[in-house]
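Sample entry was shown:

___
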Amino acid sequence: MIVRIMGEGQVRLDDGHLTELNKLDDELLTELEGGDESGFRRTLVALLEAVHRLGTPLPDDSLEPSDLILPSPDATLDEVREMLSDDGLIPG
């Protein structure tokens, strides 16, 4: 799967890592719903760090279709709320 992090580029990520990412996504959703700004920020950074750690960056000149789009690390609560689906940021 190809993951785009807004403002950073794309990462190729094995589907087998979705379980780990979904745990962080669930935490992020809970923090968003509760308006927990510090928890939200901490979990968003952890989610993006996990994508970087588990994935392989694509070259900057590569333009693959993205299967998943994640917010930038400096995204606000409201910006992330606009990106959410019923499953959070990560389907499943």
